[in-house]
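Backbone-to-sequence.
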């Protein structure tokens, strides 16, 4: 998505995009990410939006900021999970959460339909 798009990306969406790129191997351990200012301009979003996305990825342990140098994909310590695998797992987890949320919304709708037919269930005292 570029600055020509109608709807601007939010920080969560930008973080997901970068996470996907790490998971796909586009960015590997030690690779420098695009500068926040240039990336914000490319995406047509505020600088703070990209900074918030990078902060989210840093909290997830995928990237690190180096003062005066930029933002890099973390190089894992020996025995530590590599950012690519961590990003893949986070992406899978997000997909599972989205699937469960969709199922839950469907269940809520079914309960509403049942209540419309039989009326709301009254709680028993002490329950």
């Amino acid at each position: 998505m570029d600055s020509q798009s109608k709807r601007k990306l939010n920080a969560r969406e930008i973080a997901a995009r970068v996470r996907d790129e790490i998971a796909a191997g586009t960015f590997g351990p030690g690779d420098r990410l695009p500068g926040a200012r240039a990336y914000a301009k490319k995406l047509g979003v505020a600088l703070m939006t990209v900074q918030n996305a990078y902060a989210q990825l840093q909290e997830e342990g995928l990237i690190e900021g180096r003062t005066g140098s930029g933002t890099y994909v973390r190089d894992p310590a020996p025995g530590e999970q590599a950012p690519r695998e961590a990003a893949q797992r986070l992406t899978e987890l997000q997909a599972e959460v989205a699937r469960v949320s969709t199922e839950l919304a469907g269940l809520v709708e079914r309960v509403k339909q049942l209540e419309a037919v039989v009326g709301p269930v009254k709680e028993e005292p002490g329950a």
